[in-house]
Amino acid sequence: MHAVEVNQHPGLNLTQHSDVHVPKNATVIFGFWIFLMSDMVFFGLMFAIYITMIGATADGPGPKELFDFTSLALQTGALLLSSLTAGMALLVLKYNQRQRTMVLWLLATLILGLTFLTLEVRDFIAMFAMDAGPWRSGYLSAFFGLVPLHGLHVTMGCLWLVVLLIQLSIFGMVPKLKTRFMRFALFWHFLDLIWIGIFSIVYFGAWTYG
Amino acid sequence: MTYQDIFGRLTLDALPFTAFIRAPSVNEAVASTAASIVVVGALTVLFLLTRYRLWGPLWRDWLTSTDHKKIGIMYIVFSLVMMTRGVIEGVVMRTQQAFGLDGGFLQPDHFAQLFSTHGTIMIFFVAMPFVAGFINYVMPLQIGARDVAFPVMNQISLGLTVASGVMLMVSLVVGKFSTGGWSAYPPYTGAAFNPGVGPDYWIWAIVVSGLGTTLSGINFATTIYKMRAPGMTFFRMPLFTWTVVCSSILMVFALPPLSVAALLLGLDRYLDFHFFTNDLGGNMMNYANLFWLFGHPEVYLLVLPAYGMFSEVFATYSAKRLYGYTSLVIATMSIAVLSFTVWLHHFFTMGQSALINAAFGIATMLIAIPTGVKVYDWMATMYRGRIRISVPMIYGIGFLVLFVIGGLTGVILANPTIDYQVHNSLFLVAHFHNVLIPGVLFGLLAGYNYWFPKAFGFRLNERLGRRSAFLWIAGFSLTFFPLYFVGLMGMPRRSFSYTDPAFVPYMIVAVLGAFCIFSALITILVQLKVSIKERDQNRVPIGDPWDARTLEWSIPAPPPEYNFALLPQVRERDEFAMAKIEGRAYAAEGDYEDIEVPKNTPIGFVLCVLSGVWMFALVWWIWWLAALATALIILAVILWTFDIDNEHVIPAADVRKAHEAWLEQIRLTKPVDRDHEADPSNQGLAKTELEG
């Protein structure tokens, strides 16, 4: 019986951890999924714009000249790994293990996120130095409309995580914080998914076909 | 530090009064008067609030409230204020065109600002908040919920919408609004052609209110999916709630294209991007596609809830079950899905192949099928019903007749070959007003008369309501039917002047119609004033003045903060109607429980003010202020999340006491039949004439 209850949901078990707030928790998570759908539409449109503008380089640099795939491999590695660590943190939460273990996984997530951002910003600065900023062409506008939008999401995610860690140290693991961590994890995995799209379409796809 | 560092590009020249003093003209006088009305209006409100010591109650009971009912009312008040401005602008434009043969009294740029603000206001700050207000008020009551899923986010949505609307008011006084129409097509609205502040006002008002609407959509959808009362299955939901499901889906999926379009235009203007510029690979067709990818679902987002309101109205005032419930649900869903497949018909003439135009033309015509199904269902609902021609029904019947004409002209426009002839003409203007006014606005006004007693506990004056409804119908017909004819004669839309004297008679009829609409609006305000004055004769505390069918009528008027003392057990569709027929209405089933309701919070108001400051700073390039406002917005949101104990409990004993007092009142009240619906004897307890 117990085992069945624990595995009712793939993520944090909503029915087990908080007897009072059960329906509310499910509602809150459901609402967050809808938000992610809306955000997905936002990104989808930016991808569409990017694809229509791959040729619009206005004699400026195009995909073939711009990308540093070593740095991109590192960025991808950092971000995918951070998704794994975020997932581990949630598993610790789900099975009610030590809070310190969870905090360590989350700190690892934060560090990997910041690593990703540092590498990304370094790439942008290098592009700017080549006069390859959004001012140069429609193609680069589309690039800088999409990739930094993802970066901005990651930045917000990092800020969110810091705030959650502070709240954890103040309030302890109250039921409300549990669903916040769960939403954070959903958001973080979502950003990973978007990054896979960015790597496959913005970088690799454009580099192959652009 | 230079002047620009502190004030950006804001100078005294931004005030319309400055231009009027330097070079007085009728044009500048109109601009200055409009600006003065805004300033004087704002000052009067501030004065009255101080004079009658209302700041405290306003803050405690309204601005910080998280009650979905109060938020709904605030949305509607806001939209009525904006509607007044929008209607006046319409009247000014009609007047200009009536005198527009070889001139008129307005400058072309001023006329362009008028049609840009009129469109932006009517869509984003009248129709949207009016609809959002009704959804907020009615939908949770219809599904038997005690609140929406995210009460505080609801308050934030309202704050963002109001802040953006205030920006439009500010643009009347400080600087000039965009001249690029409500759709703001680049490259005309780009930095190269339009370096001023106008398009920037448009961009930020759209981005911020769009965010508010997206959040509302998430909120409404979650509420309906997750918070229905026990037994309220999807196919027992009232039809208005069904239309809200579809509208919320449209809000979640169709608003992002608008935000993307406006933000990319902003990047072009502020940071030298080249999404839509003429040079360096920009492509304005991306803008047209994005905008209408939003723009077309938007009209269904607005009209579907109006359809829902009419469905409730026709059923209630015909004392009959809604005919073809399932077909209406399917039709609503079909329209919501089809609305995403037709956006290209907004630019048939912009260079696609004939094949693509044909595909989108056919998709557009398809929408007439589910809409036709609905019209027949509504008529069949009235057929052999016990019909009362009260105010909402007058709007309803006006809607059926006029909306069918508007729909048919839409089918005409959906044919690309005809569209080539009449696109960008007043024929189009007549068409979309013909669907938006009888469709959306009449629905909202019918809903206003229908649900007002529920919200405030007293009925609106019937006589003035009728007068207003007839004035709307007559005013609409007089104003917009002539435009079909001049459109077919070749008069382009958005022309401040023309040279063909044949247009003049039509324009004169249209301006008379515009004044008729204006008096209809005034009559609504008078109706409100008179009704408030004689409220004691029209009270309906029991809460069911119309012998209605759905759950919101089964509770007191106005409802308590927690809506339902006992959560309803829903056994069938039209639960309250069936309860009345079976004689089990007003039975207290179940045990009273402590009810958790969210505490008041100032976060919505704080974000309203901060986002207003943020928009103003961006429009005027006051960078330090924009940065400060951004930081404060982030800080405010973070601090708010630290308040995790944000609910208070209403004890079961209090709930029981209030509920039992109401039940006692029911026992003492004499039920009235439908012949006395509009009498003072109607206290909201219906002697039901419904039949199973």
Can you walk me through this structure?
The complex is a heterodimer of chains A (210) and B (692). Helices cover 79% and strands 0% of the residues of chain A. Chain A has 210 residues and is an all-alpha fold. The termini of chain A are far apart. By secondary structure, chain B is an all-alpha fold. Chain B has a single domain, classed as Up-down Bundle (Cytochrome C Oxidase, Chain A), CATH 1.20.210. In chain B, 65% of the residues lie in helices and 1% in strands. Chain B has a two-stranded antiparallel ribbon. In chain B, helix 14 runs antiparallel to helix 16 (426-456). Chain A binds chain B through residues 23, 26-28, 30-31, 34-35, 37-39, 41-42, 45-46, 49, 52-53, 56-58, 60, 134-142, 144-145, 159, 163, 167, 170-171, 174, 176-177, 180, and chain B through 149-150, 214, 217-219, 221-222, 225-227, 252-253, 255-257, 259-260, 264, 267-268, 271-275, 277, 279-283, 286, 290, 293, 634, 638, 641-642, 644.
Task: Map the helices and strands.
The complex is a heterodimer of chains A (210) and B (692).
Chain A: H1 2-6, H2 22-52, H3 63-66, H4 69-94, H5 99-129, H6 138-171, H7 175-209
Chain B: H1 3-7, H2 16-22, H3 26-51, H4 55-63, H5 68-98, H6 108-142, H7 151-173, H8 198-226, H9 239-271, H10 284-317, H11 325-338, H12 354-366, H13 368-382, H14 391-413, H15 416-422, H16 426-456, H17 462-488, H18 504-533, H19 575-581, E1 595-598, H20 603-619, H21 623-641, E2 647-650, H22 652-668
Antiparallel strand pairs in B: 1-2
Helix pairs in contact in B: 2-3, 3-7, 5-6, 5-7, 5-18, 6-7, 6-8, 6-16, 7-8, 7-20, 8-9, 8-20, 9-10, 9-11, 10-13, 10-16, 11-13, 13-14, 14-16, 14-17, 16-17, 17-18, 20-21
